[in-house]
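Q: Start with the shorter request: fold the first protein.
A: Done. Sequence, then structure:
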Amino acid sequence: MSVQPSPTRRSVGSGARGTTQITAAAFLFDMDGTLVDSHESIEAVWFAFAERHGVDKAVMSKALPGRLAADIILRVLGPTADLREALNWIREREHQSLVPVRPIAGAEQFLASVPADRWAVVTSASRSMMVRRLTAAGLPTPKVAVCAEDVAVGKPDPEGFRSAAEQLGVSIESCIVFEDADAGIAAAQAAGARCIAIGNESGPQVARVDDFESLRVAVRDGALVIDVDPVR
């Protein structure tokens, strides 16, 4: 695939409201907080881990967003942590968790509008957890995914996004990344991709939206074109 990004364009719609139009070859999605609202499920497990190890919840909350489980553990427990034991404890409780997850608003419809070979998931979750959460949220599993076990270094390192673009057969510069966490936004920038932020993060981005309901996507002349309504 050789589609390259065109410059972001702003056009004025009806009234005074402006619409941003963004063209890309492929989309790379983070999962937790971006496609799936798994906040309560994640916190239930990690706050239990924090209590078990005497870690303040505020410290744990700051360490969580967008990072690999191993990186989170080392950040809160230090380099002497028994990483294997801690990871096993976390993975076991993640799979036992009964806290429900939900799709981010508009995510199902948005993904349904994107050809299956033009999007991938890049997540700090394990592959089995990715499948479980997407399925529980009623979302499709991608043909291409880069998960925790697929990278040597997690976000904010750009490895995951670059790998996903390569597997899709596009340049990373032609991709749009969808992210909700500062580590993921930083990884997208380091990779050379443009980013649409989902939520309140303020890192480098071409647009910020609350969810996917303000986005519309179509395939035009072989490219993916997103119309973005401005955040009100």
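Q: Next, the second protein, separately.
A: Sequence, then structure:
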Amino acid sequence: MKIGSLAEATQTPVETIRFYEREGLLPPPARADNNYRIYMPAHVERLAFVRQCRSLDMTLDEIRALIELRESPAKDCSDINALLDEHIGHVSQRIKELRALEKELRALQARCTSPHPVSECGILDGLDRAASSPSTVAKQGHVHGSH
């Protein structure tokens, strides 16, 4: 199948497929005489695996490691468990960071509980104060997204 068919079959944007190829998460496809990529059922299976891992917020490096381990079926699976334990730790840390962010946002929201002119808005005032505070500048970006 061509890349458009693979994209449709897996509901994955073409650019994402090309990105995963560049990152080595998908094996290079064969090329037709016209230089079009030709994908096989193994590509569909691998892409589904990669997308499932991404839906679990796994990094590309974690996925690469899982693919490498997956390709050694006789090997002990303790490395897979260790990888998952580490990932669970990252997820737990993100949850803590998101809870702290929620608390901070709720405190900010509490600064303005009734309509006022924008010039007297407690939320904007709180944002301005935090933006000019040296301790806040160091804290910016505390919710890292995907580790």
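Q: Describe the second briefly.
A: The first helix runs from residue 3 to 10. The chain has a mean pLDDT of 90.
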